[in-house]
Amino acid sequence: MTRIRVKGFKIFDDRHGKPRCYHRVTGHKIDLEKTPLGSAEFFAECARIAAIAEARKAQAPKPGTLGGLVNAYFQTEHFGNLADATKRDYRKCADFLHPIRDTPVSAITTPLVSGIHDKAAGKIGWRRANMVRTFLSQVFRYAIPRGLIDRDYAAGVIPKPRPKDRPYANRPWTVEERAVVLDRAAPHVRVAVALIMNTGLDPSDALKLTRRQIDGNTIWGVRGKTGHEVAIPIGPTLQAALYAAPAHDAVTILATSTGKPWTYNGFSTVWHRFKKKLEAEEAVQPGLTLKGLRHTVATTLREAGLEERQIADLLGQKTPSMARHYSRSANLADRNRITMETLEKENERRSKVVKPFKKTVKP
């Protein structure tokens, strides 16, 4: 019996004597029931799979090129340990650099990187252009010890400044905006906003908090973006908001109207819809963001006279050892308790002059 052979493909009989076939490189299997072995359809399917494999090979980064350096960086432990949001940003930077991925490493210079930086600013804006610069710097830094490049050619490139006429992102909320949002949000949204507003947590971290992270009157956690430890005392205002929240069986502190844990995208969609209604009624000013609440906490405490170190401790901007157990950071909780008392008093003082809104907007 003549054995059919096709370059790049493995053809064999399985333990039941049934013929099998797959592409050696990609592992793509061919359904021999639909395309019988040796038929015209079979050879056509082999040709199609081989063509796809060749196309992928042509797109793969070549050694000794910018694309090769980027691909090598994506395999590092450093990249693997980054926050998911940072990984997404870096992937977008790699997509921007894709058209020049075949640039030889020997051709990479500081003027070239500066030119890439300038082009990025014109195409995707100053902020993302600076992200591209930062990304390239990380790629070069981790390529140097491996002998893939001799130095960091992005280090000498000056970051693009913020345009003077551009409003700051994630601005602090006014006292009036805080009052109207809490007064008019649906219960399952109100408790989420209250939690972020009274802790300074990043929205993504707040949505992930579990019941086990509350020990007595303290929230223990780790910032997802940096890995920094946080110990946040629960003040009377937040305690009241948590007690008033709808009951649910989710493991997380916050949950949707159906009692399921929030996803970041899900909450963002609900929040955006709710915010747009308030903006349309001119109840809040444009530019209101959930991350702006973190800035609000910092601004409130700074205006109340607290030191930067005290504010940084509350917001998780200190770098403790990741191996330290929460119980060993009791001193951090004690320091933050004083900070939280200041925030409570300052928020109460400011809210006395604000009249609450009674109308409810369901997101």
Automatic annotation (TrEMBL):
Keywords, comma-separated and alphabetical: DNA integration, DNA recombination, DNA-binding
An example Gene Ontology biological process: DNA integration
Keyword DNA-binding: yes
Gene Ontology molecular function: DNA binding
PROSITE patterns, alphabetized: TYR_RECOMBINASE
Keyword DNA-binding among UniProt keywords: yes
Domain (Tyr recombinase): residue spans on this chain: 168-339
Pfam families: Phage_int_M, Phage_integrase
Recorded family membership: Belongs to the 'phage' integrase family.
Protein name: Site-specific recombinase XerD
Species per Swiss-Prot/TrEMBL record: Roseivivax halotolerans
